[in-house]
Design brief:
Elements (H helix, E strand, L loop, with lengths): L7 E2 L5 H10 L9 H6 L1 H4 L2 E5 L2 E8 L2 E4 L8 H14 L5 E5 H10 L6 E2 L5 E5 H6 L6 H13 L2 E5 L5 H15 L5 H15 L7 E7 L2 E12 L2 E9 L6 H13 L5 E3 L7 H9 L4 E3 L1 E4 L7
Parallel strand pairs: 11-12
Antiparallel strand pairs: 1-2, 2-3, 3-4, 5-14, 6-14, 7-12, 7-13, 8-9, 9-10, 10-11
């Protein structure tokens, strides 16, 4: 029977385990990506267990344990063990990050389970060509902002590399000063996640793009392959002194990614109103919906 003793804290050296598994069972939601988990470790304290070629992810946030569905070949007995452990050890909402396809399968096996939308953690997924080309009337306002930016500022782009990594780090320090990261718990944890992922940028197999204005880095995007047809953009940061720079880094990143991917996953909005409005303004092609189950509703 599955127990907490079967789980180990995720460490950088575990990346090959996830790489091998996700090559066969690609992740659907960005929060299951290894980069996300290892970078946000201090915030969510990710653990995992490998059972019968399945990976089970567990988080511990504010001393509250939450489990996720097994990733791998469907196994009803293992799913029941995970749900049993969730009831025994978990919080009031001990089972979550259940995507739509997984929800359909679980509902067939355990029809008494009740699922609740977790809207703040829906991933936004866009057509890469839409973000690169900004076609039609839906993108008119964004195109206008972008054209104004291009008119006001001459800029260049370059990929993140070992040669410019020190400058990237300096830009991120400036970004945190602008945003006053220490005053906001979400921003401070994001800062820690960014610092970790940039320190291990090449170990994690990340890629990125920067925008220079007057020779200085003033915006960046960090991304990676998520599954065969989708790339995920983990971070996108820009200087507050150049109106429209976020529109530019978004478009320039999409121009690169559309060569290899149909979709771009830009992760969730975490319930932040301004971020939600910005992500919706780019007209997502679809959302990766996720659901959770309350402890009181777990019944077999």
């Amino acid at each position: 029977m599955l127990s907490l003793d079967d789980f180990k804290r995720i460490a950088l050296e575990d990346k090959p385990v996830f790489d091998k598994h996700y090559a066969k069972y690609p992740p659907v939601h960005s929060d299951n990506l290894f980069t996300t988990m290892i970078s946000w470790m201090e915030y969510s304290n990710y653990h995992y267990a490998v059972v019968d070629e399945n990976i089970i992810i567990m988080t511990e946030l504010d001393n509250k344990i939450r489990l996720r569905p097994p990733s791998g070949k469907q196994n009803v007995d293992l799913l029941k063990q995970v749900l049993t452990l969730a009831v025994r050890e978990g919080s009031e909402e001990p089972f979550g990050v259940v995507d739509t396809k997984m929800k359909e399968w679980i509902s067939k096996e355990f029809p008494r389970l009740k699922f609740f939308e977790h809207r703040d953690y829906f991933d936004y997924v866009y057509l890469a060509s839409d973000l690169a080309n900004l076609p039609g009337t839906n993108y008119a306002k964004i195109r206008n902002r972008l054209n104004k930016f291009k008119k006001n500022y001459e800029y260049t782009t370059e990929l993140i590399s070992e040669e410019n990594m020190d400058e990237v780090d300096e830009f991120l320090k400036r970004w945190c000063l602008w945003k006053d990261c220490e005053s906001d718990i979400v921003l401070e944890n994001e800062r820690k996640a960014i610092v970790y992922s940039m320190a291990h940028f090449f170990d994690l197999g990340l890629s990125g793009l920067v925008i220079r204005i007057n020779g200085n880095i003033e915006a960046l995007a960090v991304y990676e392959k998520m599954n065969p047809d989708t790339a995920v953009v983990h971070y996108e940061k820009g200087s507050p002194y150049f109106d429209g720079i976020y529109k530019a880094i978004n478009m320039e990143t999409a121009k690169i990614l559309q060569k290899d991917f149909m979709f771009i996953n830009r992760e969730e909005d975490m319930g932040i109103p301004g971020l939600r409005q910005a992500k919706l303004s780019y007209r997502p092609h679809h959302m990766v919906e996720v659901f959770h189950v309350k402890k009181e509703d777990i019944a077999f």
